[in-house]
Specification:
Elements lengths: L1 H29 L4 H30 L3 H33 L4
Length: 104
């Protein structure tokens, strides 16, 4: 049973790494003139998110005795992010090609 946990952890880590790589590859396409600033902001947001994830889970464990409230909080944040991207998706798709010449 331990090998299954290691396999799932490895797959999850690989998915996170691919997502991270995709974000940093898309930055120059979307923000051609502000690549440095946007790279810094994305890195900052990732570091801040990593800090608050641990803090929220610890607070959740201390207040409720479990981690569920902390995971629910970050699940709602993720859903809000997906909803926000859904709203700007069409506009971004129509402006990316004009800015970078890329076919997206």
């Amino acid at each position: 049973m331990g090998w299954l946990a290691v396999a799932l952890f490895s797959v999850g880590t690989l998915c996170l790494g691919m997502g991270n790589g995709a974000v940093f590859q898309l930055l120059p396409q979307r923000f051609r003139n502000e690549v440095g600033v946007m790279t810094g902001l994305v890195g900052f947001a990732g570091g801040l998110g990593g800090f608050f994830l641990a803090k929220a889970l610890a607070t959740s464990k201390g207040m409720t005795g479990g981690f569920m409230a902390g995971f629910l909080f970050f699940s709602v944040l993720a859903l809000l992010g997906v909803a926000g991207l859904t709203f700007v998706k069409t506009r971004w798709r129509t402006t990316w090609g004009a800015v970078s010449g890329a076919r997206i």
